[in-house]
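ARCHIVE CARD
Drawer: 12
Card no.: 0347
Subject: one protein chain, sequence and derived structure
Cross-reference: see card 0346
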Amino acid sequence: MMRAGPEGILQTELWKRIGVSSREGSRICVRLERWGLIGREKFLSDGRWTYKIFSTKPPLKLDSIMGAPCITCPYFSQCAPSAEVSPERCVWIEEWVLTSEVAYRPQNA
């Protein structure tokens, strides 16, 4: 959806691209909208009402992860959420976030 840009993509087109039924696609879109990941606007297309979907999150920029310890971490292959080695308990990530200027940069900078 981010590739669709600010103009978004028709919900029916998205269903075709990801290969799901309209029922399943609607459920997915409603859930993503509830989570705040997408926005939906009612849209008239070829005489039928549908929704235009757009991302509410800006695309990640490479500078937001520059210097992240994960890139060179010797435990990367074992790291997983809730595992013995995990991002939740990683002192290297914590230190990086707390000392990184990226963490303090305003959104519009």
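Annotation on reverse: Helices lie at 11-18, 22-34, 91-99. The CA atoms of residues 64 and 101 lie 10 Å apart.
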